[in-house]
TrEMBL record:
<feature type="active site">
    <location>
        <position position="139"/>
    </location>
</feature>
<feature type="active site" description="Proton acceptor">
    <location>
        <position position="13"/>
    </location>
</feature>
<dbReference type="InterPro" id="IPR001114">
    <property type="entry name" value="Adenylosuccinate_synthetase"/>
</dbReference>
<feature type="active site" description="Proton donor">
    <location>
        <position position="41"/>
    </location>
</feature>
<feature type="binding site" description="in other chain">
    <location>
        <position position="128"/>
    </location>
    <ligand>
        <name>IMP</name>
    </ligand>
</feature>
<feature type="binding site">
    <location>
        <position position="40"/>
    </location>
    <ligand>
        <name>Mg(2+)</name>
    </ligand>
</feature>
<feature type="binding site">
    <location>
        <begin position="329"/>
        <end position="331"/>
    </location>
    <ligand>
        <name>GTP</name>
    </ligand>
</feature>
<comment type="similarity">
    <text>Belongs to the adenylosuccinate synthetase family.</text>
</comment>
<feature type="binding site">
    <location>
        <begin position="40"/>
        <end position="42"/>
    </location>
    <ligand>
        <name>GTP</name>
    </ligand>
</feature>
<feature type="binding site" description="in other chain">
    <location>
        <position position="237"/>
    </location>
    <ligand>
        <name>IMP</name>
    </ligand>
</feature>
<comment type="subunit">
    <text>Homodimer.</text>
</comment>
<dbReference type="InterPro" id="IPR033128">
    <property type="entry name" value="Adenylosuccin_syn_Lys_AS"/>
</dbReference>
<feature type="binding site" description="in other chain">
    <location>
        <position position="301"/>
    </location>
    <ligand>
        <name>IMP</name>
    </ligand>
</feature>
<keyword id="KW-0460">Magnesium</keyword>
<dbReference type="InterPro" id="IPR042109">
    <property type="entry name" value="Adenylosuccinate_synth_dom1"/>
</dbReference>
<feature type="binding site">
    <location>
        <position position="303"/>
    </location>
    <ligand>
        <name>GTP</name>
    </ligand>
</feature>
<feature type="binding site">
    <location>
        <begin position="297"/>
        <end position="303"/>
    </location>
    <ligand>
        <name>substrate</name>
    </ligand>
</feature>
């Protein structure tokens, strides 16, 4: 087995970046398959913090980074991020980064649409306002611009004109300023020579890499509960976040996906609006936010915090094809007297083992909790299972039992090596 897909198993911000970073050291390639610069992946390496949004996490380790066709690429944001990485001493070149020629472009107009759509909504979604949703709308609406179009000025002008014809009718209808073709076209043509050297057939590179026995980590962005099909629609992102997205979003065969690792915190957070049955709005939520430093990487927004919803996690494991879990931030719970974990719901007098489909029913559903004992001895920095306090180990085993898949990895602090490896997700005995 040569590949691993890393999927967020909650609402994002589970600490996927550092898990991918840990796996990247044991792999050759890191490939992004969904989302765009709405994602925020934080890595701490040798005390240095790297905040990534669009670049695959492996670039920090000098691994080949791939941005698949399923990613929404904002060319300005990509170049700015490459610049930020270079300022931190990380070289990003066409030898270390390839971007799918068929990836959808995110344009300035998409940011304007994102903001205007949020303004029109009676209940805003709380998007990141990066224009990701509108860019995907244009993709499925078959009027999107793609990376390869940057190399064809005439085609680019035609496609842009079509795109503006479509969107400007809407802008005018709302009494908003329409977008002019020429400045947008010139802006894209100016970016093109800096983007095109990175463009290539990512699917083909992956196919050759597989034939050569090279290992790939597929880095999912956002998470199962933000998936456009499986999340709490419409409070979701606009892409396929689950493992199946790795196939559609890079061109790798589903049969070659390998092990699917779901990343979940031992508690829960959510950014933006939408149902969150185990949310703790009071002091407990604040304590988790403060101890877990739960503020958005890119937007700085405070995250909503609550207990782990293992019933939703179990559901996510099934639909996302998750084989095993990485449990993160167990150290945040150090010193808690008791820890609650949601195992199901009570809805209209009935017991459910999964979340109801309708949003109204989700809001009525009352979580049923199983209580675990807390621990006093700190877990921060613990790197082997036998050094975990017995109660922390009981929580890990309890989550395995409730969710029905094994825990491969537990993280105990912000450093990449604050990691307990129970089983190497690449399927090989862990060599240390
Ligand atoms: P969008 O992806 O910007 O359209 O936002 C849609 C929803 O997904 C909002 O609730 C965002 O807060 C959420 N979201 C998008 N990206 C992330 C992420 O990387 N982490 C956590 N939440 C995210």
């Amino acid at each position: 087995m040569s590949n691993v897909v890393v999927v967020g198993a909650q609402w994002g911000d589970e600490g996927k970046g550092r898990i991918v970073d840990w796996l990247a050291e044991r792999a050759d390639i890191v490939a992004r398959y969904n989302g765009g610069h709405n994602a925020g992946h934080t890595l701490v390496v040798d005390g240095k913090t790297y905040k990534l949004a669009l670049l695959p996490s492996g670039v920090v380790r000098g691994k080949l980074g791939l941005i698949g066709n399923g990613v929404a690429v904002d060319p300005e944001a990509l170049l700015a991020e490459i610049g930020r990485m270079q300022a931190l001493g990380v070289e990003v070149t066409p030898q270390t980064l390839r971007v799918a020629e068929t990836a959808t472009l995110v344009l300035p107009i998409h940011r304007a649409i994102d903001a205007a759509q949020e303004g029109l909504r009676a209940k805003p979604i709380g998007t990141t306002l990066r224009g990701i949703g509108p860019a995907y709308e244009d993709k499925v609406g078959r009027r999107g611009l793609r990376v390869c179009d940057l190399g064809e000025p005439e085609l680019l002008a035609d496609k842009l004109e079509q795109l503006l014809r479509h969107h400007n009718a809407w802008f005018r209808g709302l009494g908003l300023e329409p977008f002019a073709l020429e400045p947008m076209l010139q802006g894209l043509l100016a970016l093109a020579p800096r983007i095109l050297p990175f463009a290539g057939p990512v699917w083909h590179l992956l196919d050759r890499a597989h034939a050569d026995g090279r290992r790939t980590v597929f880095e999912g962005s956002q998470a199962v509960m933000l998936d456009v099909d499986w999340g709490s629609y419409p409070f979701v992102t606009s892409s396929t976040t689950i493992a199946a997205g790795a196939a559609t979003g890079t061109g790798v065969s589903p049969a070659r996906i390998g092990r699917v690792l779901g990343v979940s915190k031992v508690y829960a957070t959510r950014v933006g609006e939408g149902p969150f049955p185990t949310e703790q709005a009071g002091g407990l939520g604040e304590l988790l936010r403060e101890r877990g430093r739960e503020f958005g990487v890119n937007t700085g927004r405070p995250r909503r915090c609550g207990w782990l919803d293992a019933a939703l996690l179990r559901q996510g494991v099934k639909v996302a094809g998750i084989d095993a879990l990485a449990l993160t931030k167990i150290d945040v719970l150090d010193g808690f007297e008791a820890i609650d974990v949601c195992v199901g719901y009570e809805l209209d007098g009935q017991r459910l083992d999964h979340a109801p489909a309708s949003l109204a029913a989700q809001r009525r559903a009352v979580p049923v909790y199983r209580r675990f004992a807390g621990w006093e001895q700190p877990t921060q920095g613990v790197r082997s299972l036998d050094r975990l306090p017995a109660q922390a180990l009981a929580l890990v085993r309890g989550i395995e039992e409730i969710v029905g898949v094994p825990v491969d990895i537990v993280t105990t602090g912000p450093e990449r090596d604050d990691t307990i490896v129970i089983r190497d997700p690449f399927g090989h005995p862990f060599a240390g």
